[in-house]
Write a structure and sequence with these properties.
The protein is about 30% helix and about 30% strand. Strands 6, 7, 8, 9, 10, 11, 12, 13, 14, 15, 16, 17, 18 and 19 form a 14-stranded mixed sheet that branches. Strands 3-4-5-20 form a four-stranded mixed sheet. With about 525 residues, the chain is α+β, with helices and mostly antiparallel strands. It is elongated and about 80 Å long. It contains 13 helices and 20 strands. α3 runs parallel beside α7, α4 runs parallel beside α5 and α8 crosses α9. The protein has three domains: about 110 residues, no CATH class; about 140 residues, Rossmann fold (3-Layer(aba) Sandwich), CATH 3.40.50.10330; about 230 residues, Sandwich (Tumour Suppressor Smad4), CATH 2.60.200. The longest helix has 18 residues. α5 links the parallel β8 and β9. It binds the ligand CCCCCCCCCCCCC/C=C/[C@@H](O)[C@H](COP(=O)(O)O)NC(C)=O, adenosine-5'-diphosphate and calcium ion. Calcium ion (CA) binds next to loops. This is DAGKc domain-containing protein.
Length: about 525
């Protein structure tokens, strides 16, 4: 990447902008008095007379809380040829940035979150893409799974440098399913085999947050803000991410990128789906209701701990932009060199069965977070020290406890206190895990939808006036309900890439309001 920087000296302050963060450069018609986008230019008359040739550079400016903004700086010179030389040189530098997308395929979910997807895209994102000379093909989805199926079968992916998803975590999940399935099919990989090594997707995905939780955007960018996300797309960021595959009886069910939750989060989702009309507030309502019902579920969790890695789920350090642990553990796991592949556990290697652990019991919640799952509701996330791209998922087991203790545990998700430092909570960083509910009838597990209720009413008939929990909960897989309770999960290290860079450590904050500079 080019490291050319230039210094803007404005009102006595100096400001350096890396070429990699320049969005566009364009001529400015000083006489016209307005910018390309119609904004009025306040220029001292003396300056415009002495330096009538001007051009404007748009660049990324960092604001508070990981927010990025598009700022403009206008340069004036006395010579038209000199202006052209500057514009041409900057354009050449930008063209040399090969990681930047030129043509994008955009999917908009018009019904996600507060149903503002189309408006957010048209008003906040499309003008930025146009300014950066990115061309787009835009599809507003007409039904659920429209984007997934289009990507899986029809989309001419060769035409594009990336896919943009305007919506929430559920919409993002659709895009991931479309892209991952398409990539496996094109490479002859069978998704139904839980032990198959999947082929990584080449196209990056950009998320413009317009959903309810938007935790994947929040945990990879640091804020849910459409403009910030659009700018990460334009500068061509790349953030690899782990993806979990979920199987039942050697049949592929779904992929998960953020949370796989049984018990509490499964019940919250199942209840909230019936209250979609409430918008994002449905999660608060159903969360409160589920907390009061306080159901626990019996079963066995077996898991393969990740033993050859640097991080642990109780670390105080966090996965941030340029994360060393993701680079180290990701390389270790990818098995690029023959020597490394010996130490990297291949998911198909059954010898690793030896290292499996088992925990049986009654659980209020079983959560697998393959990233922190930070979101505005829980700024640290379900597993604050989880990594985006280390090839592991954090398996969090919350055993049956009192309502009071469970509330203490939940409330710690909203503060800096350690939610794992409780006697009824354990957490393991794992590569694979399986869950078998207690009432599961071996391989021919009951289909939850059809028989779950029947079984529950049977149990309750046997125990009149009981307040016992139903036999099964459901799995919340990134906001979708899975049809089975018995599942097998494997992490696929760095299977997808986002137009993001991870949360930046210390964002610079500078105020530079519309500076004017002479060359
Ligand atoms: C009593 C106080 C309790 C506060 C607990 C706060 C914990 C919040 C942790 C949320 C973890 C979110 C993980 C993300 C899940 C999304 O995939 C899913 C779907 O999101 P979407 O509707 O598509 O944006 N959302 C939920 C809530 O299940
Ligand atoms: N045009 C559409 N009509 C109805 N549902 C859709 C449409 N497009 C996508 N969906 C579905 O809407 C669900 C929720 O979308 P999402 O964007 O994640 O919003 P939210 O965060 O509010 O759940 C997803 O499961 C997705 O499959
Ligand atoms: Ca991970």
């Amino acid at each position: 990447m080019s490291c050319l920087t230039f210094v803007i000296t404005s009102y006595g302050t100096s400001h350096s902008v890396s070429v990699s963060e320049i969005l566009a450069v364009r001529e400015l018609d000083v006489g016209g008095g307005t910018n390309d986008d119609g904004r009025w230019q306040k220029m001292p008359q003396k300056l415009t007379e002495a330096y009538p040739y001007a051009f404007t550079v748009s660049y990324v400016e960092r604001a508070r809380q990981h927010r990025w903004r598009c700022s403009d700086v206008t340069f004036h010179c006395s010579d038209g040829v000199l202006r052209q030389q500057w514009i041409q040189t900057i354009r050449e530098q930008l063209t040399a940035l090969t990681s930047r997308p030129k043509h994008l395929l955009v999917y908009i979910n018009p019904y996600g979150g507060k149903q503002q997807g189309e408006c957010i895209y048209e008003q906040k994102v499309a003008p930025l893409f146009a300014c950066a000379s990115i061309s787009t093909d835009v599809i507003v989805t007409e039904h659920a799974n429209h984007a997934r199926d289009h990507l899986k079968t029809e989309a001419e992916l060769k035409k594009y440098d990336g896919v943009v998803c305007v919506g929430g975590d559920g919409m993002f999940s659709e895009i991931v399913h479309g892209l991952v399935s398409r990539t496996q099919r094109d490479n002859g990989v069978d998704q139904n085999s839980p032990e198959e090594k999947l082929v990584p997707c080449s196209l990056r995905i950009g998320i413009i947050p317009a959903g309810s939780t938007d935790c994947i955007c929040y945990a990879t960018v640091g804020i849910n803000d459409p403009v910030t996300s659009a700018l990460h797309v334009i500068v061509g960021d790349s953030q690899p991410m782990d993806v979990c595959s979920v199987h039942h009886n050697n049949t592929f069910l779904r992929y998960s990128i953020s949370l796989l939750g049984y018990g509490f989060y499964g019940d919250v989702l199942a209840d909230s789906e019936r209250k979609r009309w409430m918008g994002p507030a449905r999660y608060d309502f159903s969360g409160f209701k589920t907390f009061l019902t306080h159901h626990h579920y019996e079963g066995a969790v077996s898991f393969l701990p990740a033993t050859d890695i640097l991080g642990t789920p109780r670390d105080k350090t966090r996965c941030r932009a340029g994360c060393f642990i993701c680079q180290h553990d990701g390389q270790l796991y990818s098995g690029d060199s023959p020597e490394e592949s010996k130490t990297a556990p291949d998911v198909s290697d059954r010898e690793y069965e030896v290292g499996w652990g088992v925990v049986r019991g009654k659980f209020l919640a079983i959560n697998a977070a393959s990233m922190s799952c930070a979101c505005p509701r829980s700024p640290m996330g379900l597993s604050p020290a989880a990594h985006l791209a280390d090839g592991t998922t954090d398996l969090i087991l919350v055993r049956k406890c009192s309502r009071f203790n469970f509330l203490r545990h939940l409330l710690r998700h909203t503060s800096k206190d350690d939610q794992f430092d409780m006697t009824f909570v354990e957490v393991h960083r794992v590569r694979r895990f399986r869950f078998t509910p207690r009432h599961c009838q071996n391989d021919s597990e009951l289909d939850l939808r059809e028989n779950g209720k029947q079984l529950f009413s049977q149990i309750c008939r046997d125990h009149p006036a009981c307040s016992c929990s139903p036999a099964y909960s459901s799995w919340n897989c990134d906001g979708e309900i899975l049809p089975h309770a018995a599942i097998e999960v494997g992490v696929h290290c760095q299977l997808i890439k986002l137009f993001a860079r991870g949360i930046e450590e210390q964002p610079l904050f500078e105020d530079l309001a519309n500076p004017q500079c002479a060359l």
